[in-house]
Design goal:
It catalyses: Release of an N-terminal tripeptide from a polypeptide. Its EC number is 3.4.14.10. This is tripeptidyl-peptidase II. The structure is a single chain. 28% of the residues lie in helices and 20% in strands. It is built from 14 helices and 25 strands. Strands 10, 11, 12, 13, 15, 17, 18 and 21 form an eight-stranded mixed β-sheet that branches. A four-stranded antiparallel β-sheet has the order 4-5-3-9.
Amino acid sequence: MFSSSLLVVSLLSLARATPIFRNLVVHEARSDVPAGFVSSGPAPADRVLNLRIALAQSDPAGLEKALLDVSTPSSALYGQHLTQEEVEAFVKPSPDTVSIVNEWLSANGLSATPISPAGDWLTISIPVSKANALLNAKFTTFNHPETGTSSTLTMAYSIPTELKGHVELVHPTISFPNPFGLPVISAPLKAAPAANVSSDAVPASCATTVTPACLQALYGIPTALATQASNKLGVSGFIQQFANQADLKTFLTALRPDLSSATTFTLTTLDGGTNPQGANQAGVEANLDIQYTVGVASGVPTSFISVGPNNGDNLGGFLDIITFLQKQTTPPQVLTTSYGQNENTVSKALANSLCNAYQQLGARGVSILFASGDGGVSGSQSARCTNFVPTFPSGCPFMTSVGATTAINPETAATFSSGGFSNVFTAPSYQSSAVSAYLTSIGTLNSGKFNKAGRAFPDVSAQGQNVEIVVGGKTGLVAGTSCSSPIFASIVSLLNDRLVAAGKPVLGFLNPFLYANPGAFNDVTTGSNPGCNTNGFPAKAGWDPVTGLGTPNFAKLLAAAGL
């Protein structure tokens, strides 16, 4: 009798402990379809979705503290970047989280595959019919007529109550992709005169045609070759944009004759990425990014990271490239990306997950820079709006957002330079005093159109208009913050080269260092970034949401870094 009773009690306890996963609660929802997208009805029931599940990380607050400790100049731990294993210890989900999520999937005849180094991202393949039932969703086909693209998404989804606190999000569900991402073309691709710039002055011609020599004169960028092979610069490539070797050679021959015309870049690929070299396949964005990294970061080993069409992250590869770099034992110390999208297209949970991924690389000593966008206060591209539209990932506090300037003597804000305040992320401590001073200076201007408590961007800026490039053998001018990010990234790489040569750690996550040294920038105090039927924000003395802290002064930044 004793043994039988014990068995019954054990079975009852087991039954009570096993989740039943029947009570579903809404986990994420959105009320609006982003501008430009239209619904064409329910997605076919047999369409297979590759869904990703983000699990709760074990200690995200601990990782943030560790990141700020190694990135803040006044910290005793400044420069003591974390190892890959140390970062993953903060990120790895708890055994309870892994267990209950796998139980849920197994109960529904599914199994997941980990796709991130720490196991905080899983992937499953599932038909629409089953995804609708599993998540109490209504997956729909959304078309974007202007670009001819389509996505299978839902306006809401649910998860079992037992998974609350264990599952951060399921993706792609309510986040819409970025259909655009190319720089503004400021002039036809035709012959443009090269400026003859001396090292001690910036001639007037640089106001209409920006070249590497103009930047060297304007910002004091050295022409001497970098010496440290371990110091690398990564350039993100998306949406079938290819960097052309022959165009780079033509560019260097004409505009960096002091560099060997054979100077080139290495190719890194993922998601089926390629880099074909036909003259008609050369991409404006890819060529711009490569020519103004190889051509400005003299001698720094540069890699073009081509993300192919086989990405399943519904973000054009944004998530895949970060996961790819997280897996590398020695990722590039600087990564520049000239793409982005409006913050309102991305769910808060997804924005947080991507931002935390940037945080992981930052803790390991990687400087992550993004172009702030080209729509002024109306977002990544100029659009109709009432309230200001912040861009993503510029609102993330763990990366560096780069705005654009134009003209010389003095520089002024480029009107297209996106800037403002995030509606997702709160203002980080490293910029609080600078942003507070700006908000005080503008009083009630644009009141109600932006979130005063949000993370403010851009952080810095650089030239972004009338920038000379070569595409398909033709010389022309382009504009956009897409120009500014690779320029600033090149300067960071050259600073890192000097630091490594001196036996010091690289800069890593930049923002606490940048805001601690506002005197290392050329303050931009004129211009604005209009949009949403307003004049946007005015550039002012000190930080502003058009040009950030200003444009770089290489010598002062080098001194601030202790050299």
